[in-house]
Amino acid sequence: MKKVDIESRQKSILNAIVESYVDTATPVGSRVIAQRFRNAMSPATIRNVMADLEEMDLIMQPHTSAGRVPTDKGYRFYVDSLLEPKHLTREEESIINKLIHQVGGDIEYVMQNASKAISLITNVAGFVLTPRLKRSIFKHIELFNIDDSRILAVILTTSGFVKNSIMEYEEHVTKHELMRITEFLNSELEGISLGEIKSYLTRKLLEERDSFYTFLKRAMDILAVPDLFRADDHLYFDGAACIMSHPEFADIKRARLFLRACEDKKGLLSLLNQDMDREGVKIHIGKENVDSEVQDMSIVTCNYEVNNMTVGAIAAIGPTRMEYGKVISVLKHISSELGKELEGLG
Amino acid sequence: MKKVDIESRQKSILNAIVESYVDTATPVGSRVIAQRFRNAMSPATIRNVMADLEEMDLIMQPHTSAGRVPTDKGYRFYVDSLLEPKHLTREEESIINKLIHQVGGDIEYVMQNASKAISLITNVAGFVLTPRLKRSIFKHIELFNIDDSRILAVILTTSGFVKNSIMEYEEHVTKHELMRITEFLNSELEGISLGEIKSYLTRKLLEERDSFYTFLKRAMDILAVPDLFRADDHLYFDGAACIMSHPEFADIKRARLFLRACEDKKGLLSLLNQDMDREGVKIHIGKENVDSEVQDMSIVTCNYEVNNMTVGAIAAIGPTRMEYGKVISVLKHISSELGKELEGLG
DNA sequence: TATTAGCACTCTAACACTTAGAGTGCTATT
DNA sequence: AATAGCACTCTAAGTGTTAGAGTGCTAATA
Q1: What is the mean pLDDT of residues A9-35?
Q2: What does the DSSP 8-state code read for residue B321?
Q3: Lower CB density within 10 Å: C or N end of chain A?
Q4: DSSP element (H, E) containing A42
Q5: How far, in Å, is the CA of B247 from the C1' of nucleotide D2?
Q6: Do A245 and B227 make contact, defined as CB atoms within 8 angstroms?
Q7: Which strands make up the sheet holding A138-147, listed edge to edge?
Q8: How far is Cα of residue B18 from the mean position of the Cα atoms in its chain?
Q9: What are B49-58's pLDDT values in tens digits?
Q10: B212-223 and B175-188 are packed helices; what angle lies between their axes, rounded to 10 degrees?
Q11: What CATH number is associated with residue B156?
């Protein structure tokens, strides 16, 4: 009889348990696993291994006479050590690309379709965070009077986004003065993120003392309109319907809790903003989430880049029993396609 | 014994049935109604009236030994002839106003919060359609080169919205020429809706034949960027969770169908675009909806105005058993507050 | 010594059966 | 015309029963 490394046998059985459970949503018994291995081991042997895995807190039994189900820790081990990358089919890629690169859609449309693409392919709910303007780098500004009391500022960022801001102004600013201010701001603000503009100008204001002060003050007033610093983090959501097909939500109460968590958005927003700083795919399984509302869910996030700068993030959320491999590849793919599309949109 | 107009007694009993059923979600029997009228009539009498109402197809029995439930036709009669306007409480108004007039939010934020306000107060799902730019009236345009090959157009509308559009352009347009084009477009397009600009300029192009042609052609090319004519109709949605508290969705299958209908958006979009043309509240009960997916739901819509022009619409969707009176007043109130807020946002 | 067959035991999910109660329609009475 | 009384119907909830899936333990086996 061939000698098998016990460690590795435990691994492959855990792997089989996770994949079978993800697939069927029913606790998996020793018989099923034995068949999966074409009876290379007897159910009894597998039961022994299962007892070990349960000892290690990687799997558990919902009740005494049921099969095993992976624990959060079990999924974590699976994701970290067993998961092998899963490629998307041509068909799947084509569906995603069609949704994201649809002609004639504005940014909101693209965001909405990206979240729909996530949920459609992964069969869990999808989230997309809009490009964060505050993180975008200032490139160019144009100012002009639209009437006696209002000035329109148009700001371009290096990642290609445009931000408008109208401000009311009591005293009339001459065209000449406006041009000087425009020139000044353009030379001064290059390379600064939109979120930093305010504090940058304030600092500048403290340094300058002479006649330049009034000029600078006025320039700042024009820019410091609340509009520019408004919250620009919005979450697009899709997949409420498809999530309901999972048996974990057969109980309407759990379904409601899940939907409430999705609509609350605050928790997810802060998670995404946090995860955005690290590149690539991040996974939060069950109780690993600090947010108590999603402690029986898993959240997978991925940043996306426009012109090589991270400006936003996308996410998938569903029961801990999800196809992690697939979700990861889908998010990676969509992140990259979304970035490309946004570059094109300008 | 006092003589009572039979017509009016039928009405008041139908009214009682509808209100009791909306309130309790259980088929209402003759005893309950009798108690509602403080036993002014006996259950037996009421049963006779109920038989009449059933004859008229205003109410029905889910099964032989159950109480009565209003039919679509019954709700319609109730809404048209029995419903009395319901005022919002101070508290409710304050919740709505806080949500909509929150400082530091951009348009998307306001839309999202408006839909949340609808669902929060009415306890059914809320929809908000973004301001339709195509319906907005052209007021002013500014054009400038952002680099050698790209021109940024900023269009202002009379309702106060701003629309950006960047276009790629092979040959360089001089600053002087750009100014001439700007002036031309500003004088020419005043009062035209954004949706009509393209056809207007095309018509103009056919009339002109001389040297002006090239100039006009160029102006049009700049404006006719696809971006300007992109789909700008987005639906914001909230209340998936709260809709789940209704017993009609105890069956997960119906819940899924409802969510699918909400996420599909196409049907709702066309309904809203249609309803927008008439002012005020419009109600679609159950089978009155052409869309088969929502034939067991009711949809209530209301347009909203910015600077006295209808630019968008809001809606509530839920089971036919909904508090029509309340939903109507909430939509009216939110429509008006939303309009005000958007005027302020500029 | 590691694996496996056998067996008693446990728990769930499904089904059948029963019953209380809410509600009706009809008929006879006021 | 309105109502009380009554037989009838249907549902929802509770109770028992059973089949079957799965386990852990022990003893046999390679």
Answers
A1: 96
A2: S
A3: N
A4: none
A5: 37
A6: no
A7: A138-147, A150-157, A162-168
A8: 25
A9: 999 999 999 9
A10: 80
A11: 3.30.390.60
Asked if the model's pLDDT at residue A4 lies above 80, the reply is no
**Interchain CB distance below 8 Å, B109 and A255:** no
CATH code (residue B112): 3.30.450.40
CB atoms within 10 A of CB A7: 8
| CB-CB neighbors (< 8 A) of B112 in chain A | 234
| Cα A83–Cα A85–Cα A86 angle in degrees, nearest 5 | 115
What pLDDT does residue A199 have? 82
Tokens of A149: 């009391």
* Domain contains A1: no
C-beta of residue A298 within 8 angstroms of C-beta of residue A286: yes
Cross-strand partners of B231: A105
Question: In this structure, are A248 and A318 located in the same domain?
Answer: yes
CATH code of the domain in which A45 resides: 1.10.10.10
Mutation test of the interface with chain B: which of A110, A256, A258, A317, choosing the one with the most B Cβ atoms within 10 A?
A: A256
- Report yes or no: B301 and B282 within 8 Å, Cβ to Cβ: yes
Mean pLDDT to the nearest integer, B135-160: 83
**Does residue A60 reach within 7 angstroms of strand D, measured from its CB?**
no
Q: How far apart are CA A186 and CA A189, in angstroms?
A: 6
Domain boundary among A42, A65, A82: A82
Return the structure tokens found at A152. Answer: 């329109």
Residues spanned by the domain of A217: 134-229
d(CA B118, CA B316): 7
